[in-house]
Design goal:
Chain lengths: 287, 270
């Protein structure tokens, strides 16, 4: 969706002035990305400090998930650098990239659980793939992870037997199976009922603090995000248009932030897709 | 020539060139994909249970359609063969006609076509849906290569299953031929089996059939995994990929059958 006037908003709440790059787990420096000729991201610069939860918010199709894929090395930027722990992800050899990914956890929008495996096997999957742990220890670890998300009793269920909220919690348990340094959440609240949504939100905060991980949450759920994250970036049309702490966002008078937080249908993000004048379209046949 | 006609000609040539270069690029991609599968094969074979599981899904679950089809094809072959052989008073040769037709040609070809329809389409749909539901992406993000974990076991399961299914197709076809030829029509059972035993050789008759079925198994499996892996992650994309698997595999089987048969007939002066 097009944004009418947001150029000043980013200047007023610049993330790079507030967050210390020295403490950064993730840094994006002037990153641009395009699918063929379609530009998705334009000059994104952001910092994710170690041990914090950072939300990336924006309307659907604004390029939020693309940022996660760039951090995970599934996509390469056309311009700029994506640094994880000081390493440029795009410059890594495949083996080094896979070694880096072992330190990541990712929760996909609809869980992406392996449908041919039970809940237990889903969580054991990364352990079996990347460790030589004996089966008895894998069993204990899986039960611990499941207990952390409150689903120890669902260990033998198949993904098709889980509700949306349960599926998301199982995916969360799988994302933290190998005690990652970074967990990326792609729309963790999408399609959840209010109770499941609150549970998942609390779990993200609790696991982040208890395990000392760094979290990036891509979402458009303003209410839940403002409760649990440390910092927010707003993305529109592939650019960061505003950013700040939850308190700053609540107090912000920036038109884009206000439209997003208050859920106004029209504003900098226009309601109407660009089109010729309405009267001209209606009278086209008459003429 | 007018400028309009020249423009049309250029357009046609450009489209033709695009089609040819696109086809060559696709072949190159398939070769690279096969290379990646072969590269990850030792890793896949180390976890043999994955391949065995896929043999169950591709092979064992295809048994009913393969065996039933083999039986009916054998019965029809026997009826048709008897009708022709009777004209030349050569009914006793029915066993050898049925056996050679099945072992050298119909077993691998019809078995391959059925395998493409039943197992190939299932492989494409499964991998395509895994892609659509981000399961493949999840694997990548867990530092597990989907080609090693998902694609290679399915490919090898197809290569292993196909010759076994073709052999069973031929065996049931011969049994069907026996039922019609001996039990219904009344040809002497000794002549039926004796002619077959004398006329069908392991080399080259049976080995030709085995070679064909291995090649068809590899072709169908490769097409099925590539179409699934490249499917657009939408319902329509998976549906189109599944259809393409059946169509392309079927054409590939028939074309490869011709090529292989030409090579196998070189010994008779072709």
């Amino acid at each position: 969706m097009p944004v009418a006037a947001t150029a000043d908003s980013h200047a007023t709440l610049s993330p790079t002035r507030r967050l210390d790059p020295a403490a950064a787990a993730i840094e994006l420096k002037d990153v641009s990305f395009a699918y063929d000729t379609r530009l998705i991201l334009r000059g994104i610069t952001m910092t994710v400090p170690r041990g914090k939860i950072v939300a990336i918010m924006g309307a659907s199709g604004s390029g939020k998930t693309t940022i996660l894929r760039l951090i995970g090395g599934q996509l390469r930027p056309k311009k700029g650098k994506v640094l994880v722990g000081g390493q440029s992800v795009a410059d890594l050899e495949p083996d080094a990239l896979y070694a880096l990914r072992r330190k990541f956890g990712m929760l996909f929008q609809f869980g992406a659980l392996f449908t041919d495996m039970t809940v237990f096997e889903n969580i054991a999957f990364p352990m079996r793939e990347h460790t030589d742990l004996p089966e008895s220890m894998i069993r204990d670890l899986v039960l611990m992870k499941l207990n952390a998300v409150g689903l120890r009793g669902a260990a033998q269920l198949m993904p098709s037997e889980l509700s949306g909220g349960m599926g998301r919690r199982v995916a969360l348990a799988r994302a933290i199976a190998l005690d990652p340094m970074l967990v990326m959440y792609d729309e963790p609240f999408a399609g959840l009922d209010p109770i499941s949504l609150a549970i998942v939100g609390q779990l993200i905060r609790r696991l982040n603090d208890a395990l000392g991980i760094t979290s990036i949450v891509v979402t458009h759920d303003v209410y839940e995000s403002l409760k649990m994250v440390d910092y927010l970036y707003f993305v529109s049309e592939g650019k960061i248009v505003a950013s700040g702490t939850p308190a700053e966002v609540r107090a912000s008078s920036d038109p884009f932030v206000r439209q997003f937080v208050d859920g106004q249908p029209d504003g900098p993000v226009r309601f109407h897709y660009p089109a010729p004048p309405y009267h001209r379209a209606l009278l086209a046949n008459v003429e | 020539m007018s400028s309009e006609a020249t423009g049309d000609l250029v357009l046609v040539l450009r489209r033709l060139g695009g089609t040819v270069t696109g086809g060559v690029a696709r072949l190159g991609y398939m070769a690279r994909f096969l290379g990646a599968i072969l590269w990850y094969t030792p890793m896949a074979l180390r976890r043999l249970h994955l391949t065995v599981r896929e043999i169950y899904f591709s092979g064992v679950l295809s048994l009913v359609i393969i065996l039933m089809s083999g039986l009916f094809v054998g019965m029809v072959l026997s009826l048709q063969g008897y009708e022709v052989l009777r004209r030349y008073s050569a009914q006793e040769q029915l066993g050898i006609v049925v056996a050679l037709s099945l072992v050298k040609e119909l077993g691998p070809v019809i078995g391959g076509l059925l395998f493409a329809s039943r197992a190939g389409s299932a492989i494409t749909a499964e991998i395509g849906l895994m892609k659509a539901t981000e399961q493949l992406s999840a694997m990548e993000m867990m530092a597990v290569d989907p080609i090693a974990r998902v694609v290679a076991p399915r490919f090898w399961a197809g290569v292993i299953s196909m010759p076994l299914l073709a052999a069973l197709f031929s065996a049931f076809g011969i049994f069907g031929g026996y039922l019609i030829g001996v039990r219904v029509i009344g040809i002497d059972a000794g002549a039926f089996w004796g002619q077959m035993q004398a006329g069908v050789n392991f080399w080259p008759d049976i080995t030709n059939g085995i070679i064909k079925s291995i090649v068809f198994g590899a072709a169908v499996s490769l097409i099925a995994v590539i179409e699934g892996y490249d499917a657009k992650p939408t319902a329509e994309g998976v549906s189109s990929a599944t259809t393409r698997t059946v169509v392309v595999s079927s054409l590939a089987i028939l074309a490869l059958d011709f090529v292989l048969t030409v090579f196998m007939f070189r010994g008779v002066g072709l």
